[in-house]
Inverse folding.
């Protein structure tokens, strides 16, 4: 599956957005988007273009679409994921446009000019996830399999074998625990 630069940026943004939700494991019940400053940081970190001064209304709207994206990652089948994505993209009033800003080659923005940050995220991130459903790859939208972590991630491995949000933290921690358990059992 070919993933263009702008699609990869949208995937990174949607994963990070989902992982700000307060009910996600690893968030300690803290909402990663509780303040406008948090949203400003998110916009800056993800280099989201065309965003003007953010307001409480923007913060509330982004939290709302975040909840919908959480549902996409929890969807049990492609039909449910597709329905959710269709709702997100339609609500954003998409207007696909070719653009070549910020030294990037031609790519497609799906949001209308002057769109709110919530509509921008709903359109671009929704379309990035739609490509996975269209390609029959919806199962790549995953949650970490570590028992104490349910963070979202997109499995971009060739053989669809990624199980953890981060192999250096969750994966390594579980492998070390399994190793210690085997050694303890062998020692008797």
């Amino acid at each position: 599956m070919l993933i263009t630069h702008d699609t990869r940026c949208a995937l990174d943004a949607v994963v990070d957005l989902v992982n700000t939700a307060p009910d996600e494991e690893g968030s300690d019940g803290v909402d990663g988007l509780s303040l406008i400053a948090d949203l400003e940081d998110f916009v800056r970190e993800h280099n989201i273009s065309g965003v003007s001064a953010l307001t409480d209304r923007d913060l509330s709207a982004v939290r709302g679409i975040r909840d919908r994206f959480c549902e996409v990652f929890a969807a049990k089948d492609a039909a449910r994921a597709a329905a959710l994505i269709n709702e997100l993209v339609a609500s954003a009033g998409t207007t696909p446009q070719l653009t070549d800003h910020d030294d990037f080659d031609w790519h497609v923005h799906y949001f209308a000019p002057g769109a709110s940050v919530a509509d921008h995220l709903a359109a671009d991130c929704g379309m990035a996830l739609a490509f996975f459903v269209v390609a029959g790859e919806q199962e790549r939208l995953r949650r970490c399999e570590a028992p104490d972590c349910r963070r979202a991630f997109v499995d971009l491995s060739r053989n669809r074998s990624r199980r953890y949000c981060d192999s250096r933290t969750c994966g390594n921690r579980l492998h070390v625990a399994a190793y210690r358990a085997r050694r303890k059992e062998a020692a008797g």
User: Anything to note?
Assistant: The first strand starts at residue 97 and ends at 99. The chain has a mean pLDDT of 87. The domain at 5-160 is CATH 1.10.3300.10 (Jann2411-like fold).
